[in-house]
Design a protein that fits this description.
The complex is a heterodimer of chains A (371) and B (316).
Chain A lengths: L1 E12 L2 E12 L3 E5 L6 H9 L6 E6 L2 E2 L10 E4 L11 H11 L4 H15 L14 H13 L5 E5 L7 H18 L2 E6 L2 H7 L2 E6 L2 E6 L1 H6 L4 H6 L6 E9 L3 E5 L7 E4 L14 E6 L4 E3 L11 E13 L4 E7 L2 E7 L10 E7 L4 E3 L9
Parallel strand pairs in A: 3-8, 3-9, 6-7, 7-8
Antiparallel strand pairs in A: 1-2, 1-4, 4-5, 9-10, 11-12, 11-14, 12-13, 14-20, 15-19, 16-17, 16-19, 17-18
Helix pairs in contact in A: 2-3, 2-4, 3-4
Chain B lengths: L1 H8 L8 H39 L16 H8 L1 H32 L6 H13 L2 H12 L5 H7 L16 H26 L3 H10 L3 H12 L1 H17 L2 H6 L11 H11 L3 H36 L1
Helix pairs in contact in B: 2-14, 3-14, 4-8, 4-11, 5-8, 6-8, 8-11, 9-10, 11-14, 13-14
Classes of the chains: A alpha+beta (371), B mainly alpha (316).
Bound molecules: adenosine-5'-diphosphate (ADP) and magnesium ion (MG).
The site of magnesium ion (MG) has 3 residues of chain A, from helix 1.
């Protein structure tokens, strides 16, 4: 049974259409991440799932029950807010038990649930403090505690880590992931950070301008982005996207900078290539930076699935773990990621290996993935 | 401000042409020119007259100031006068009644207006309007309304309820409450505005969190919103209390302190001693005691405000 179904949800604020028909279904125990740039409607969608906003059209179904007209308190959900939204005049203990108090849970049971949650999140020492006396990370934990103390059908998170510093964010990211594995609850997590999406999700819904661009598992979203927006949004540095022309006989060949003296010809793998109709047409070629490495790299593949080429090097960025190289392929700027000890000479030319299995082709008109 | 924009644009001060530099200098000076002279005048005014009144309160002055020393004799005689005792016990009744009723009405109005009603601005203006009216006008209008012969009692009897009685204005026991009513009518819009501003400044996410926690509207106000605006409660109480202590023109216009001494307040006693009976020394003593009552309200409040500020600075 689906833990959450969002069916054709639309929402407008005045003249602005914020959600343009959203369809998402989550299985029980899934960790769904809604990711997209700021202002794309993620929070609005989450608020509609929570019942804090009413959709103009469409339905929300939680654990098989249509809840579109049900108030938030009767949806059996818990939510963590970006601002944490801790009640400033209550102690940590009161903050965590307020929900149970509202629901008339007996005091004994409240105390047990509180003790269990406090132990889980290691906030036992903070229970008598007010939110103002906590650090950012501690507030974040208390906000999590308020959600975890109940055993809801659905957990909702609205950018819960975006107010933490980078180090704490990475720690909490792992902790939430472990927590999800331990309690096995269904979670919907909103973020604008694609790394959080990649690392935590069982499935990612990439949103842009009020529409879901792609809803798939992280590998698919990363390696087979449904369109150019997803290709450019996910990954840091993002996927290279350059204009190319498809030619070739039995095996298709993508030509970057066709007609130029430095044109690049990449022979594409035989299987999974573009439909025959695309021969001799312009496409947009997408390739992840890590699929372009120093010559000699085999990408764990047998002969023939990668090609070697020579390209002028414009800039190098050693990051320690690798060296990022900006080069020109057929006149187009492209990023590659080579081994950390490889330092191509800037201004000269160097040889690179390209994993052609990882090339994506997009329709330049619709920006959708062709192959 | 010219100085500000130049700094933002990153123009080095020396590169500016002479007129601009002159204008910038004037611009920096202007706030001080506007602020300091009036402040100085009012401080001198308030401090010097307070000091003068305090001095007079220790002299045997009657119709005109005399500068002999009589110690606390004026204070003793004022404190022992029946007039003053009644005025003070009236002030306690009126002060409590006025502050409680006004706070309650103001809070009720604020919560009602907070329900995202239509024409909110219109209602806010209507409720704030009495505050813009002079106390004398309020007093006069309510004197008519409460007058049994021409006001509400007359009106209701005119509708056919011949036995209806509403004659608090001429009732020794109840007259003080007519002042409470008129004062609350005038000030509750003001309390409403302060409460509404406080309620609206509460983070919208808190409402959402409370809704998800399963709290109904009543519980959300009681447990989440109102505790958050605790400091505003205290500010409202203090402002209203000092309104109450200073009340003068409202009573003058509404009851004139009567019937008998039923609505006599300390401010009226001061006026009576100084300008009706020509007892400047005693009037000054009464005025100083009134000032002390104000300080008893205000000083703890300032101490509290300082403490809060310091605590906030400590916790960020
Ligand atoms: N209550 C509201 N009234 C009007 N516009 C809103 C409201 N809430 C959100 N919006 C608008 O809807 C768009 C999407 O907002 P939101 O869902 O918060 O985006 P995200 O969470 O993805 O950053 C934004 O352009 C925002 O300005
Ligand atoms: Mg948001």
């Amino acid at each position: 049974m689906s833990a959450l179904v969002i069916r054709g949800v639309r929402k407008r604020f005045g003249a602005q259409e914020v959600l343009k028909g959203i369809d998402i279904a989550a299985e029980s125990g899934e960790f769904i991440v809604l990711v997209g740039p700021s202002g794309c409607g993620k929070s609005t969608l989450l608020n509609i799932v929570a019942g804090l906003e009413q959709p103009d059209a469409g339905d929300v179904e939680i654990a098989g029950r249509v809840v579109t007209r049900v108030p938030p308190k009767d949806r059996d959900i818990a939510m963590v807010f970006q601002s944490y939204a801790l009640y400033p005049t209550m102690t940590v203990r009161q903050n965590i038990t307020f929900g149970m108090e509202c629901r008339g849970v007996p005091k004994r049971q409240q105390a047990e649930a509180l003790a269990r949650t406090a132990r889980l999140l290691q906030i036992e020492a903070l229970l008598e403090r007010k939110p103002a006396q906590l650090s950012g990370g501690q507030r974040q934990r208390v906000a999590m505690g308020r959600a975890l103390v109940r055993d809801p059908l659905l957990f909702l998170f609205d950018e819960p880590l975006s107010n933490l510093d980078a180090k704490l964010r990475v720690e909490m990211r792992m902790e939430i992931k472990q927590l999800h594995r331990r309690i096995g609850a269904t979670m919907v997590y909103v973020t604008h950070d694609q790394i959080e999406a990649m690392t935590m999700a069982t499935r990612i819904a990439v949103m842009h301008q009020g529409a879901v661009q792609q809803f798939a598992d992280p590998d698919t979203v990363y390696n087979r982005p449904a369109n150019l927006f997803v290709a450019r949004f996910m990954g840091a540095p993002p996927m290279n996207t350059v204009a190319a022309r498809l030619v070739g006989g039995e095996r298709p060949v993508a030509v970057i900078g066709a007609g130029r003296p430095d044109e690049i010809r990449l022979t594409l793998p035989a299987e999974g290539g573009p439909p025959p109709g695309w021969r001799n047409r312009e496409v947009v070629l997408g390739i992840r930076p890590e699929a372009i490495a120093e010559a000699g790299r085999r990408f764990g593949a047998e002969e023939g699935s990668f090609s070697t080429l020579e390209a002028p090097v414009e800039m190098t960025e050693p990051t320690g773990a690798e060296t990022i190289v900006m080069m020109r392929l057929g006149g187009e700027p492209v990023l590659g990621r080579v081994a950390p000890d490889v330092r191509p000479v800037v201004g000269g030319a160097a040889r690179f290996a390209v994993d052609t299995r990882r090339i994506c082709l997009f329709d330049p008109a619709t920006e959708q993935l062709i192959a | 401000m010219p100085a500000g924009t130049a700094a933002v644009a990153g123009v080095p001060p020396l590169a500016r042409p002479a007129p601009a530099r002159w204008r910038g200098w004037l611009g920096r000076l202007a706030p001080h020119l506007v602020l300091w002279p009036p402040l100085l005048v009012s401080v001198l005014h308030v401090v010097s007259f307070t000091a003068y009144t305090t001095w007079i309160s220790f002299t045997p002055s009657t119709l005109l100031p005399e500068y002999d020393w009589v110690g606390v004799q004026n204070y003793v005689s004022v404190l022992n006068s029946r007039n003053w005792k009644i005025a003070y016990s009236n002030l306690v009744i009126y002060g409590c009644g006025f502050v409680l009723l006004t706070t309650a009405l103001g809070l009720l109005l604020a919560v009602l207006i907070d329900q995202r009603i239509r024409a909110e601005n219109l209602f806010r203006t209507i409720f704030l309007y009495p505050m813009a009216v002079s106390f004398v006008v309020t007093g006069t209008v309510w004197a008519w309304l409460l007058n049994p012969g021409i006001g509400i009692q007359h009106l209701v009897r005119g509708f056919g309820w011949a036995g209806f009685r509403f004659d608090w204005l001429v009732d020794r026991e109840m007259a003080i409450y007519t002042i409470v009513i008129a004062g609350a009518w005038q000030a509750s819009g003001f309390a409403m505005a302060l409460f509404l501003a406080g309620i609206r400044s509460v983070d919208a996410d808190l409402y959402r969190a409370a809704q998800i926690d399963g709290a109904g509207p009543w519980r959300i106000y009681r447990r989440v919103v109102l505790p958050c605006i605790g400091p505003i409660f205290i500010a409202v109480l203090v402002i209203l209390l000092q309104f109450a202590i200073k009340t003068f023109d409202l009573v003058r216009a509404l009851t004139g302190g009567g019937p008998g001494l039923a609505t006599q307040l300390p401010t009226l006693v001061v006026y009576d001693l100084m300008f009706q009976r020509g007892l400047l020394g005693r009037g000054a003593a009464a005025a100083v005691m009134l000032l002390l009552s104000l300080l008893v309200v205000l000083l703890p409040y300032f101490a509290y405000a300082r403490w809060r500020k310091r605590r906030e600075a400590r916790h960020g």
